[in-house]
Design goal:
heterodimer, A: 344 residues, alpha/beta, TIM Barrel, 2 domains, 8-stranded parallel β-barrel, 3-stranded antiparallel sheet, 12 helices, globular, B: 321 residues, 8-stranded parallel beta barrel, 35% helix, 20% strand
Amino acid sequence: MNTENEANDGGYVRPELVCPAGTPAGLRTAVDAGADAVYCGFRNATNARNFPGLNFSVNELTDAIAYAHERNAKVLLAVNTFPPAGRFELWREAIDTAARLGVDAVIVADMGVADYAAQTHPQLRLHLSVQAGASSPEAIRFYCKEFGIKRVVLPRMLTVEEIAGIHGQIDCEVEAFIFGNIGMMAEGRCSLTNYATGISTNMDGVCSPAESVRYEEDAERNLNIKLDRFTIDRFAPGEKAGYPTICKGRYLCGVREQQGYYAFEEPVSLNLSALLPKLMRAGVTAFKIEGRQRSRAYVKAAVSAFRKAVDDILDGRDPGLTSLLALTEGSKETEGAFRSKLWR
Amino acid sequence: MESSGAAISLGPILFNWQPEAWRDFYFRIADQAPVDTVYVGEVVCSKRSVLFEPYFEEVAERLKAAGKTVVYSTLSEVMLKLDRQVVDSVCGLQDSLIEANDGSSLAHLSGKPHHVGPFVNAYNEGTISFLARKGARNFCLPAELPATAIRVLCERAANVGATIEVQAFGRISLALSARCYHARAHGRTKDSCQFVCENDPDGMELRTLDNRPFLAVNGIQTLSFEYLNLINELDDLRAMGVSRFRLSPHSCDMVAVASIFRSVLDRRIALAEGLEQLKALNLGAPFSNGFYHGVPGHQWVAAGSTQRTPAKASTKTLELR
């Protein structure tokens, strides 16, 4: 399973394809479709996809680890939220359970959680979650030194050139998101949902909770999409309506009085398929696909397509990515910050 | 000045004020404001740092001469070369107290006494203990923490020889981004911004499509539209052990704001009167204190209100099965 130092003729280090596992069935789907590793979370606030109907019980995770390991795939457990004081026990329990079950790594964000894991379970491999927001070599080296972090998941705000620059200045592995839904705000540093709804992304693991979403038709038959009492977007009859996320809504401001505009970002999703070789040359050794909340069909299609693309690149073939187009059809795509700093 | 055992601090200016206005603001604070600690330094955008550099030393000297403790705040988001250079130079200041606002400044300051700012996710006992071992002596807590967590953190901080500070006034920082939203609103990018954020001394207000005020944009930072105001909670916070109350600067009369908070803390005026005086400042936005009470952050829970609805996260209490 360890492919870290194995470079092929093209000079590429074989990257690990890290895939979403929202449910036990989703995990099996991702493994069968060619995931080198899957990431998942417990069914509570200790992970950043704490949605109803998702995630794993202890027993389910035990079975899932066995299934993945039999097929040479790793299981990474996300314990990547920030426990508020007084509720630390739940996160401690998650770390202890992860160590006991033999997950291949735990993805942590909170310094208290990382410190507990490093002190109590020194053998437990730790990855630094994107939620930790470590966006400079100094910050990443700090986490590596203090907690023995072996891999950092980079924030989605850097260009490929900047990633290469960081990679040259740190001693741990680099993982980057390549596909799926992306928020506009620095990960782990956003309280917008809590401000609007009383549920915290950092502490409860939920962004834009479904129970706070309202769809209301107005007199002109426009569909108003609300998060709690705030209108996040409005769609004319026939226009395709999306899910209300504060950072992808339309608003008014002093210089945009006439028409609502996407103040932060349009409802786009990330697709870096065309940048894979560049990312590999920049030192990224793990590619992450977002989407623990997505269907098994979606996971199967996305994992299969990227499995083939990575293998094609390693074998010196042109990566075939046409099958990905069907997945993102109807929604806009972006290469986000990765292509150019003009995105900022 | 700390007769009541609670200090008042002035947080760093979050906005892009004209350099002379920036200097004069601090001169007036030095001469007139009953604050004990003043945080100085650019925390939002490294491009702005150079604008204030010419007045930095002058301002610090004036504040120190007036008996204020000066703490230098570092950038909250550190990613670009310029960001890193700015953090390097601030953390390299000799014989100075620094407030760390990200992981890179924590790395620089590790091993010597320092403050930890609200942009560092110090949410729990474990993080407080860890950072205290690295030299943290004061924590200004993240604004979204509820009273229940603040109470526990005060106890832990006392055990590890650190103090707790909470923001008590001013718009709340809600999010940071790599993208500049001021530039975006004006059809520019972060590199070509031409410092358009200088037009909005308290942030650029965003309204929902049905014209309800919602947020305030300040470059890469998104703030609340409402002004945080914990004047009604001061007694409770003090009883928990909070030792500093941070006022975040706005273009309103901050000497007046500081005086009102000082008077309430010293019991020279009644709470209700303090609140009325703050309202009379006509800030153009309502107050909020929801985060403290565990309800949506934009909300205002009136003093003595029994309608403190608990946060409705049904998933909050799910345990491992």
